[in-house]
TrEMBL record:
It comes from Paenibacillus tundrae. GO terms for molecular function: oxygen-dependent protoporphyrinogen oxidase activity. Keywords: Cytoplasm, FAD, Flavoprotein, Heme biosynthesis, Oxidoreductase. This is Coproporphyrinogen III oxidase. Involved in coproporphyrin-dependent heme b biosynthesis. Catalyzes the oxidation of coproporphyrinogen III to coproporphyrin III. Its EC number is 1.3.3.15.
Amino acid sequence: MDKQRRKQIVIAGGGITGLSTAYYVEQLCRAHAIEAEIVLVEKSDRFGGHVHTGKKDGFVIERGPDSFLARKTSIIELMQELGIGDDIVGTRPGISHSYIAYRNQLHPIPDGFMLGVPTKWKPFLTTKLISVRGKVRAAADLVLPRKSNVEDESLGQLLRRRLGDEVLEQIAEPLLAGIYAGNADALSVQATFPMLQETEQKHRSLIVGMLGVRKSRAPKQTTQSSQTTSKTTNKSTSKTGSGNGSGSTSTVKKSMFLSARGGLEEVVTHLEKSLSSSINMMKNTEISGVTHEGERYVVHLHNGTKLHADAMVIATPAHVAARLLPDESISKLLQTIPYASVMNVVLAYREQDVGISLEASGFVVPRKEGRTVTACTWTSSKWAHTAPEGHILLRAYVGKYGQENDDQLSDEKLVHHVRRELEEMMGISAEPIFTEVNRLPDAMPQYKVGHLERMQDLDDALATVMPGVYLGGGGYRGIGVPDCISQGKAMANKLLTRLIDMA
Ligand SMILES: Cc1cc2nc3c(=O)[nH]c(=O)nc-3n(C[C@H](O)[C@H](O)[C@H](O)COP(=O)(O)OP(=O)(O)OC[C@H]3O[C@@H](n4cnc5c(N)ncnc54)[C@H](O)[C@@H]3O)c2cc1C
């Protein structure tokens, strides 16, 4: 091989994972004085993938993710490096609760729920969401023995075993599995909420273990929590602040979820700007396959041209990667990651037309309610930057794994169903100023039981069959935007190591 030749890196997929990989590998190559030609190939006409913000009449509309967990700092560090650290905003102060829909009514999530586990007796005993029998069953967690092995199991299996069906179905599943648009009985607990399994192993009782966690966090944080993302829960504990909730340092510091003042796509546009002079960024370019060429790879494009790669990252969804890679065993492993198709309906109102107070971050809907809407974020209550003064912005979510029939509905019918359900559950009958339907086919990866083991098998198979090819993104090791950025950083390091080894 020609050791003097400029090394070539191809990154497939220009979502947040592909962009972050490009950003970090470009920095690493510069720092190590490695001459490399980096190409980022994106199928669509824009970068960012699911990170997609729209702006209309003063509203900031997130079509995919709307926020990130403050404790996952990779995105904060990235935004600071990109010079947009000051644009990080926290949730509006005082919006500290959310609801669960039950029989046409919204009930507050009982205070003290953490990862679906009750840690405060009074709110739990008085909630109408769980029957007396269900409450007694949940208390059995205090005496039940711990599971004897630490094999992976489903989130549903673990919570049903410890707390009973009702707590799972009425509270935990919509809050936790809802993040993945998933089914709790199929999602791997180790890949989604490993803390639950760790708590059982350490404390036997989830209630006792979570109570300890809550006390150790007090007084900063008090109630139910989520692992990666949250459609509706909002744990800003600030009772003071700037008034509008966004931007003030104290609010940002106290907020459990954060976002960007101009919408999350701000991160994408700044990444794009910082990369455009140093790497080759190709939009409207679809990759159709990857083949071997000695120690290198040939990347085939739909337009008939080819790129060559000494090392490459595939940051497309797993089902696309399965089609691109030539090895059957790798493709089969990739096909074990199913994706749910989801939609969301954005509704904008004049406050005066709605006539009810929306002092919460929204609500989730248990599967048993049999509704089209799976959750609704009261976006403008949660995020001050998303609506002009005197206006309200809501986002209703539709579709989850195994419940995707509504994607056959026309936009008109979908909006009709969503408005009818919002009227039944929230009492809003006003005519919206505008609505927007966002369809996201095959968008939410499902980490099924055994996911982490399969990821290890995938890494091992790639290292043997296609050394120098790395896979990353929401489908693999963390669905949240900060997880994708961390994966991008980790893959950039692997790309660098590969280039150094080849030199
Ligand atoms: C509705 C929704 C809400 C969410 N909410 C949150 C949230 O609030 N907070 C949070 O942290 N996370 C959230 N997530 C998760 C998070 O947004 C995603 O996990 C993350 O954006 C995935 O990024 P990615 O780069 O891995 O993949 P993607 O965004 O899917 O990007 C992959 C890219 O690959 C491109 N591509 C596909 N095929 C090819 C090909 N053949 N050739 C070239 N390019 C190709 C695609 O066009 C796309 O741009 C949400 C996700 C969804 C769908």
